[in-house]
């Protein structure tokens, strides 16, 4: 698998570390105000889609930036790479 | 001699260049360009292997990668490479090979007695035999395990050697627009078309020559295309290169056999080169493999695939026999019969299961001569070590009935054609499930997408000359009594497949595993489709409903040497501290802590490790010791929001930490469990240096980066790993302040200027240093940091300043002893299963702010009183404790219920006993209890212990605050 890093260019999978479901990570509850069930969901609940999946990968062996990548879990085709947390 | 070299012909051979080689030490001669198979065939050798289970003599069946029988071990300077197909070994002067699976020799194999017990070795033999009871002292499976090595010797293939492989291998990464797999006419045309558009093209052909299976008449056309491709800078042409794996994202693996065919590799050339090719587009032109027909006696040497016979004749000028017979269910073999007649063979008979044939086939049959037996089948063969005759009977393939008596036809070579199977293996590997084609009676690749395409015979475009029809009659097996083999390498017969079905195996995947059909080194290249057809027949289903198994890499065996290439030997990365050489020069025994090499202890002559670390620990408690702490993870955190950031990731508060002060900190994971601990130094208003445990440095760094990138992208903070930039030495002991006072310039190090957790900046022997007063050992102690390149200089200056105070360096063992005595935790206790409370660190959990883990840390299961908590243990018997021992109830005679485990142990000079730290169920309420540390599997010890507070020495911390 080749991941196109916006900073370093297309690089081999071996340079990257998987960091989890991007949509899940983006939905981190407010630590001061949230109830336990939303935290339980954040820490433990994951979808397991056969198809497109938004996920965070760190270019650990490169620029070390975290990237939001949409990867098809069946074909491993990558259809989108953006910066996480970027304002829409 | 039956097979022989023709007087002329042979596109690959050089008749002026005779080459000598040996098989089992016996000398043979062939011609330059020969494969081992063609050279042995030319020498009249018929038996080229012994079968896996029954040791039946086997001859050459195929021309290339599909050969199941003729396997040899190539021996080079004592290195053995087993199970190499004779069809792929190119001979050179001095080539030495051994035959396989025979004893004492290929011609006289005493193990062939296995044939007599044929029934005993039927399908599922291993599963049925190696289970169940045997009467006697060795019961059940144990008895069979004892037999296993005897049976393994009788049934098997080649034997690998033990000598190290001295060959050199290379690997290469390549990128291209179009990868063409297969250098036959279809592949070459495809490559040419792509190359003309300027795209970068790589063409891989597994044979030594271009052209694939195309017949001699196409030679000039092929040469023309190859010459045109060779002249283009955007084309890479690779022969002797097998593409054997197709992975995600059009990444393919190939092995180029660079010098296997040469007596000596050219200067600088590797033996093999492993290619990792990333292609925008893959053009499959992998051709088709001819299938055998399954009939009784079909494994007798002399029975060969029809097209293989043609290719031996055209390529090497070797006729596979003098008096040929052909057995077919399709037209393609008729061209072969005619061609071999033209080359000088006598064609005795053409046997075809079809009752009638087309005009084109009839014309070729007339040219070939011999009896044309339409509506007939071969029902048996004879000849002890090679084919002498075949039995032929009238056969109706629609009713599967025989009529009349069998007729004997004398022949020394039977050329068989059961139709053609496109090579769909690579496409299947990539996830493209093959589709059954009723007309061709074969699996074809599915419709490709933009990433790949398929061309020529691989696409089912068989394109036979002479207007021959590519469609065979749907006949895979002649159901007549006798041993009829489906998988030649694993000795799986048609009856074995039916037996498996009778025993309840319905799925093709189960059938494959139970019978081992298609699981030998040839991966069923000749046997998959016939096996599937017989299975489908037994199930009463059409073949496509039974389905095929998915092919897995590799297409053909790839050497591990080529995949490893230069990556062998000690590949473990070693991280060395700046003072590494000094430690070695001063008697340190080094210890691998993760990737780091750290001094374990500095043994004086005659000292054991234990004597050394006990002495070192005593030195620290009584005077001063120096330990290398450069391995601690160090992260520089800068920015206007740095303090706020630390407040969010640590459980305790950092906003109010003054500049030039340090604080102990604890991080949790999001789920509320402890992640790591360390110290945080505030170097300036917006700049902090944090240390992590050696083991968790990478994890903490990634965690901080994730928080900043993903959770809080608006925070103005940068984190930078500076582990390798700072050298660190911790000086500990009641005399440590005196040592610093003797060598530090530019700053006062007294208690007022440098209180507990204070930071000062000064110099040691001219080198700027940062000194923080903090303690892991529990003694008065300081960490002295300087630029990494000055590490040894500063270390030596500290040692020199400490000499009047009898300073000594100490290693990991003494460090461990000191921290165990104090009850300080490390990664052994912060093991991912413990909470802050479990480790008595709940005083660090701020209630005034949220932090990572704060929302989850108070869950019921994490606050349960009975959780395993940190305690100290002392050996009551004087026996040495073992880290990892279970802490159990019970008595001296044996363990009772488990209550926890020992995380660390040491001999404590302060307590004068073996002590340890442990995580014990409801540990806080067990202080004073007598339990046992039991270690039944490793050391066999069962030691009485007392549970004590983890603060075993100086519980009030008076020493480090003094
Ligand atoms: Zn990058």
Low-confidence spans of chain A:
none
Q: What are the bound molecules?
A: zinc ion
Give the topology string of chain A: H per helix, E per strand. Answer: EEEHHEEE
Q: What's the mean pLDDT score of chain B?
A: 92
In CATH, the homologous superfamily of chain A goes by the name Folate-binding superfamily
Q: Summarize the amount of helix of chain A as a percent range.
A: 10-25%
Give the spatial strand order of the biggest sheet of chain A.
3-4-5-6
Instruction: Work out the number of β strands of chain B.
Output: 50
Structural class designation of chain A: alpha+beta
- What would CATH call the class of the domain at 1-161 in chain B? Alpha Beta
Q: What is the distance, rounded to the nearest whole angstrom, between the alpha carbons of the first and last residues of chain B? A: 101 Å
Q: What top-tier CATH class of chain A fits best?
A: Alpha Beta
Oligomer category: heterodimer
Report how far apart the termini of chain A are: 28 Å
The tally of helices of chain B reads: 23
Contiguous uncertain segments of 5+ residues of chain B: 132-139
Protein name (chain A): Sarcosine oxidase subunit delta
GO molecular function, one term (chain A): sarcosine oxidase activity
Pfam families (chain A): SoxD
Protein name (chain B): FAD-binding protein
Task: Describe the protein's topology.
The complex is a heterodimer of chains A (88) and B (962).
Chain A (H helix, E strand, L loop, with lengths): L1 E4 L3 E4 L4 E5 H5 L9 H9 L7 E7 L7 E7 L5 E5 L6
Chain B lengths: L3 E2 L8 E10 L2 E7 L3 H7 L6 E2 L6 E2 L12 E6 L2 E7 L9 E4 L26 H5 L11 H14 L14 E13 L3 H12 L4 E4 L14 H12 L4 E4 L2 E7 L3 E7 L14 E13 L3 E3 L12 E3 H11 L1 E2 L3 E6 L3 H11 L3 E7 L6 H10 L2 E4 L1 E7 L6 E8 L4 E10 L2 E5 L2 E3 L2 H5 L5 E3 L4 E3 L7 E3 L30 E3 L4 E2 H9 L5 H8 L12 H12 L3 H4 L13 H5 L15 H6 L2 E6 L2 E7 L6 H14 L2 E4 L4 E6 L3 H8 L11 E8 L5 E11 L2 E6 L4 H15 L6 E4 L4 E7 L3 H8 E2 L13 E6 L2 E6 L8 E7 L3 H12 L5 E2 L2 H11 L37 H4 L4 E8 L10 E6 L2 E15 L4 E9 L8 E6 L5 E8 L9 H4 L1
Parallel strand pairs in B: 2-8, 9-10, 9-14, 10-11, 14-28, 16-24, 18-19, 18-24, 19-20, 33-44
Antiparallel strand pairs in B: 1-17, 2-3, 4-5, 6-7, 6-8, 12-13, 13-14, 15-25, 21-22, 22-23, 26-27, 29-30, 31-32, 33-39, 34-37, 34-38, 35-36, 36-37, 39-43, 40-41, 41-42, 42-43, 45-48, 45-50, 46-47, 46-49, 47-48, 49-50
The structure holds zinc ion.
């Amino acid at each position: 698998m080749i991941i196109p890093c916006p900073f370093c260019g297309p690089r081999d999978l071996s340079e990257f570390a998987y960091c989890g479901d991007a949509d899940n990570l983006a939905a981190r509850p407010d630590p001061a105000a949230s109830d336990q069930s939303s935290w339980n969901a954040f820490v433990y609940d994951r979808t397991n889609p056969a198809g497109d999946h938004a996920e965070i990968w760190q270019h650990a062996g490169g620029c070390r930036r975290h990237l939001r990548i949409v990867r098809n879990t069946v074909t491993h085709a990558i259809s989108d790479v953006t910066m996480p947390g970027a304002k829409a | 001699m039956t097979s022989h070299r023709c007087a002329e012909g042979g596109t690959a051979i050089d008749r002026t260049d005779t080459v000598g080689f040996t098989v089992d030490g016996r000398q043979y001669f062939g011609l330059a360009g020969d494969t081992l198979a063609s050279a042995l065939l030319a020498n009249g050798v018929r038996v080229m292997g012994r079968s896996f289970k029954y040791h039946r003599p086997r001859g050459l069946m195929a021309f290339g990668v599909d050969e199941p029988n003729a396997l040899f071990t190539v021996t080079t300077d004592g290195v053995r490479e087993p199970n190499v197909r004779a069809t792929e070994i190119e001979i050179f002067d001095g080539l030495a090979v051994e035959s396989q699976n025979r004893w004492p020799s290929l011609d006289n194999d005493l193990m062939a007695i296995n044939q007599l017990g044929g029934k005993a070795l039927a399908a599922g033999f291993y599963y049925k035999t190696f289970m169940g009871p045997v009467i006697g002292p060795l019961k059940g499976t144990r008895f069979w395990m004892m037999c296993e090595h005897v049976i393994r010797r009788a049934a098997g293939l080649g034997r690998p050697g033990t000598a190290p492989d001295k060959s050199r291998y290379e690997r290469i990464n390549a990128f291209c627009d179009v990868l063409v797999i297969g250098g036959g006419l279809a592949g070459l045309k495809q490559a040419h078309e792509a190359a003309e558009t300027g795209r970068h093209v790589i063409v891989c052909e597994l044979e030594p020559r271009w052209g694939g299976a195309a017949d001699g008449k196409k030679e000039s056309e092929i040469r023309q295309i190859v010459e045109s491709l060779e002249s283009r800078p955007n084309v890479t042409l690779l022969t002797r290169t097998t593409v054997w794996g197709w992975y995600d994202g059009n990444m393919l693996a190939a092995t180029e056999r660079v010098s296997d065919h040469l007596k000596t590799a050219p200067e600088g050339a590797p033996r093999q080169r492993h290619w990792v090719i990333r292609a925008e587009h893959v053009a499959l032109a992998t051709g088709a493999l001819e299938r055998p027909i399954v009939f009784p006696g079909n494994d007798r040497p002399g029975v060969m695939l029809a097209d293989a016979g043609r290719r031996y004749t055209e390529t090497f000028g070797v006729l596979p026999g003098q008096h040929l017979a052909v057995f077919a269910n399709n037209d393609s073999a008729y061209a072969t019969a005619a061609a071999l007649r033209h080359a000088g063979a006598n064609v005795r008979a053409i046997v075809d299961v079809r009752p009638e044939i087309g005009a084109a086939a009839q014309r070729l049959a007339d040219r070939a001569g011999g009896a044309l037996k339409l509506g007939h089948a071969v029902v048996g063969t004879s000849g002890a070590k090679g084919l002498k005759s075949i039995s032929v009977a009238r056969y109706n393939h629609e009713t599967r009935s025989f009529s009349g008596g069998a007729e004997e036809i004398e022949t020394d070579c039977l050329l068989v054609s059961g139709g053609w199977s496109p090579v769909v293996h690579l496409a299947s590997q990539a996830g493209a499930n093959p589709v059954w084609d009723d007309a061709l009676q074969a699996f074809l690749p599915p419709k490709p997408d933009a990433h790949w395409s398929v061309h020529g015979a691989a696409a089912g475009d068989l394109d036979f000359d002479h207007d021959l029809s590519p469609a065979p009659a749907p006949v895979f097996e002649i159901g007549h009594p006798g041993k009829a083999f489906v998988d030649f390498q694993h000795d799986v017969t048609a009856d074995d497949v039916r037996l498996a079905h009778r025993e309840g195996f319905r799925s093709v995947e189960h059938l494959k595993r139970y019978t081992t059909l298609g699981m030998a080194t040839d991966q069923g290249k000749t046997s998959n489709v016939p096996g599937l057809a017989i299975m489908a027949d037994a199930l009463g289903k059409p073949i496509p409903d039974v389905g095929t198994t998915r092919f897995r890499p590799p297409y053909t065996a790839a050497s591990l040497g080529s995949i490893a290439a230069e990556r062998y030997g000690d590949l473990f990365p070693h991280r060395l501290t700046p003072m590494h050489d000094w430690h070695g020069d001063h008697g340190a025994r080094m210890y691998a802590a993760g990737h780091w090499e750290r001094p374990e202890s500095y043994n004086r002559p005659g000292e054991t490790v234990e004597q050394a670390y006990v002495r070192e620990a005593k030195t620290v408690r009584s005077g001063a010791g120096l330990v290398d702490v450069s391995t601690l993870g160090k992260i520089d955190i800068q920015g206007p929001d740095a303090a706020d950031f630390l407040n969010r990731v640590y459980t305790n508060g950092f906003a109010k930490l003054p500049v030039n002060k340090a604080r102990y900190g604890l991080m949790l994971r999001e789920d509320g469990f402890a992640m790591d601990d360390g110290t945080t130094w505030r170097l300036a208003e917006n700049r902090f240096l944090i240390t992590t445990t050696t083991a968790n440095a990478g994890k903490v760094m990634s965690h901080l980066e994730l928080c900043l990138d993903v959770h809080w992208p608006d925070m103005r903070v940068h984190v930078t790993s500076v582990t390798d930039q700072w050298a660190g030495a911790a000086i500990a002991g009641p005399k440590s302040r005196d040592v610093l006072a003797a060598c530090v310039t530019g700053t006062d190090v007294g208690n007022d200027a440098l209180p507990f957790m204070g930071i000062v900046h000064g110099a040691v022997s001219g080198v700027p240093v940062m000194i923080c007063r903090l303690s892991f050992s529990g003694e008065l102690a300081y960490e002295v940091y300087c630029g990494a390149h000055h590490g040894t200089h500063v270390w030596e200056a500290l040692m020199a300043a400490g000499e009047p105070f009898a300073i000594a360096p100490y290693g990991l063992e003494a460090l461990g002893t000191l921290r165990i005595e104090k009850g300080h935790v490390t990664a052994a206790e912060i093991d991912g299963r413990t909470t802050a409370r479990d480790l008595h660190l709940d005083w660090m959990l701020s209630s005034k702010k949220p932090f990572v883990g704060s929302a989850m840390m108070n869950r019921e299961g994490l606050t349960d009183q009975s959780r395993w908590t940190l305690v100290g243990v002392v050996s009551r018997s004087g026996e040495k404790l073992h880290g990892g021992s279970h802490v159990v109830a019970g008595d001296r005679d044996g363990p009772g219920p488990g209550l926890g485990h020992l995380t660390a142990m040491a001999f404590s000079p302060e307590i004068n006993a073996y002590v340890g730290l442990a995580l014990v169920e409801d540990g806080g309420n067990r202080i004073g209890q007598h339990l046992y540390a039991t270690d039944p599997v490793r050391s066999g010890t069962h030691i009485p212990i007392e549970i004590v507070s983890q603060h075993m020495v100086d519980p009030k911390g008076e020493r480090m605050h003094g």
